[in-house]
Amino acid sequence: MGIIETHDLRFVYGKGTPFEKVALDGVSISIEQGDFIGVIGHTGSGKSTLVQLLNGLLRPASGQILLNGSDIWAKPKKIRNVRFEVGLVFQYPEYQLFEETVYKDIAFGPLNKGIKNKDELDRIIRTAAEFAGLKESLLEKSPFDLSGGEKRRAAIAGVIAMQPKVLILDEPTAGLDPRGRDRILDRIRAYREKTGSTVLLVSHSMEDIARVADRVLVMNHGRVEMFDVTKNIFRHGERLSEIGLRVPQVTQVFLELKHLGADVRTDVYTMDFAKGVALDFLSRHDATTEQPDRPPAENSSAGETAEGGEAQ
Ligand SMILES: Nc1ncnc2c1ncn2[C@@H]1O[C@H](COP(=O)(O)OP(=O)(O)OP(=O)(O)O)[C@@H](O)[C@H]1O
Ligand SMILES: [Mg+2]
Known about the structure:
This protein folds into two domains: 233 residues, Rossmann fold; 60 residues, no CATH class. The protein contains twelve helices and ten strands. Helix 3 packs across helix 4, helix 4 crosses helix 5 and helix 11 runs antiparallel to helix 12. It has a six-stranded mixed β-sheet with strand order 6-7-8-3-9-10, sandwiched between helices. A four-stranded antiparallel β-sheet has the order 2-1-4-5, covered by helices on one side. The relative contact order is 0.12. It is an alpha/beta fold. The two termini are 24 Å apart. Helices cover 40% and strands 20% of the residues. Strand 4 and strand 5 form a beta hairpin. The site of adenosine-5'-triphosphate has 13 residues, from strand 2 and helix 1. The site of magnesium ion has 4 residues, from helix 1.
């Protein structure tokens, strides 16, 4: 049994109006405890709708969402508890921030979870702010006076402060500079390792997904297109581009090489792994061009080198 399962999930915006839009249809997935899932898909494919259903912010038109085996809508009055267990950082942080100060905003979750001790609360708030890279001096400011990147960090801190068992982040690195992006991704990975939490990361950046996800969910027009371990997903470069996605640049290079007739593998999606594969290819290429009489070293140890270089 997965920590989260969905069965035949369907969601419709503006039902019964001229603007009716089926945003999700037939979505059945199972996510295991401790998984790090990357969620990708073209704009409007239903990613944000799906994650809002998973934390009980939206209610499905039909189908079920199970959290630890229980239907989250079995007792609608208890739906708030689901939002503490499944923490969601919104795609647009301004929808998430509403208190007078950033400090109070971050305090909201832990307070509602029942943390009353002032010192403990203060420690949780400051640790969460530090996690998100939010300067202490911003804690007393109004969330509305923050820059876009700072708002995003405040929203991340607010969710981390609840210590959710399932952490969902919808485009958390949008609007951050490359250093800020790397830092947040590293922190999310560390949070998962430390707490054993399950993480879902929605991102338009294939590079980010390739770096951190164990498994990738690909959405296409409100349906699940693929859901598999990361390296299997990036083998389908052509299909991904057909549905409006781009594989990581490094994968693209190997797909092009294959297209040009080179005997290289194409399930390459991190730079470390790419180096091993490229060196393997070059050593085989040298062997065949320098000593034309000898057959190419097909069964050399190069394959193992490539596997060994794979980054997770
Ligand atoms: N509040 C809403 N009212 C009506 N339609 C909506 C609403 N929110 C989303 N939609 C529609 O539902 C579909 C799925 O939207 P969703 O926001 O889930 O996509 P997404 O994959 O998150 O896109 P993006 O990558 O742009 O964030 C889209 O066709 C969108 O236009
Ligand atoms: Mg979205």
